[in-house]
Design brief:
This protein is α/β, with parallel strands linked by helices. It has ten helices and 14 strands. Strand 2 and strand 3 form a beta hairpin.
Length: 265
């Protein structure tokens, strides 16, 4: 790939999450929730062969961090996360040289090579979960998954993005009538759980989409959602509100078991 900016959700869902973002000479992995073999297969599949410069961890849940130690040892690159997340995960990752773990405060901004990164707090039942805005020249890419409710502060952070990865975890009827135990259903639909398809649409309605080229619906539940259901639900709400008459962007689903369609700018 010879594009200046590459963004690709390599895997997205409760079985494991990892996202690639690359700009000029800098490439970052966001989260580390699948095996290194699966990571390598995904990178090969999209034809990506640049050096990875850092691993950025959003929060401490295992589908986002369980392979971070392996990535660290295989890639020999720093891990970047906040203090509470690191304290929650460090004993489960195997041998990690903490001199190469860079701890930040949620809400701060910093850079890795050519990529500017802004962190922000998200409502989720983890120790200190973060969303991210990436600044790549004049382009902005935002990631906000594992989000418990439609949140004004998060909307303000991810506004005016060129590309957005937003959670659309479950169809509410599928969740309520599905096999999950009552306590888990309550957790998922709580204000610190996960966004439903309808809530994802409501979140999009809060955004200024003048610059937006693509929105990915991510972190879909395998049991309580389906890509076609998520797309149909979100599209129908946005169409009803006239969004597609005012803005020109594509709406896609981030895939669970294989790389999604890459965004290149």
């Amino acid at each position: 790939m010879s594009y200046e900016i590459i963004f690709c959700p390599l895997y997205s869902g409760s079985s494991g999450n990892v996202i690639l973002i690359s700009y000029k000479d800098t490439s970052i992995l966001v989260d580390a929730g699948v095996s290194f073999r699966k990571l390598t297969c995904a990178l090969n599949k999209i034809g990506f062969n640049k050096k990875i410069d850092a691993i950025l961890l959003s929060h401490d849940h295992s589908d986002h961090v369980k392979c971070a130690g392996v990535y660290f040892r295989k890639l020999n690159v720093p891990i970047i996360t906040n203090h509470k997340t690191w304290e929650a995960v460090k004993n489960s990752l195997g041998k990690v040289d903490e001199r190469n773990v860079h701890l930040i405060e949620t809400g701060t901004s910093f850079s890795v090579g050519s990529i500017g990164i802004e962190t922000f707090s998200i409502p989720h039942d983890a120790k200190d979960p973060m969303g991210f805005c990436f600044y790549l020249g004049r382009k902005k890419i935002s990631i906000s998954t594992d989000l418990g409710h439609v949140n004004e502060k998060v909307a303000q952070k991810i506004d005016f993005s060129d590309i957005i990865l937003l959670e659309s975890n479950h169809d509410i009827e599928m969740l309520l009538t599905g096999p999950y135990p009552y306590y888990l259903k309550q957790r998922i639909k709580s204000d610190i759980g996960h966004l439903s398809n309808e809530q994802a649409a409501q979140m999009i309605l809060k955004l200024n989409l003048e610059k937006t080229k693509r929105i990915y619906l991510g972190h879909l539940s395998e049991e309580n959602n389906h890509p076609d259901v998520a797309l149909m639900t979100v599209k129908s709400i946005l169409k009803e509100k006239g969004v597609f008459e005012s803005f020109d962007f594509s709406l896609d689903v981030a895939q669970r078991y294989q790389p999604s369609l890459c965004s290149v700018l």
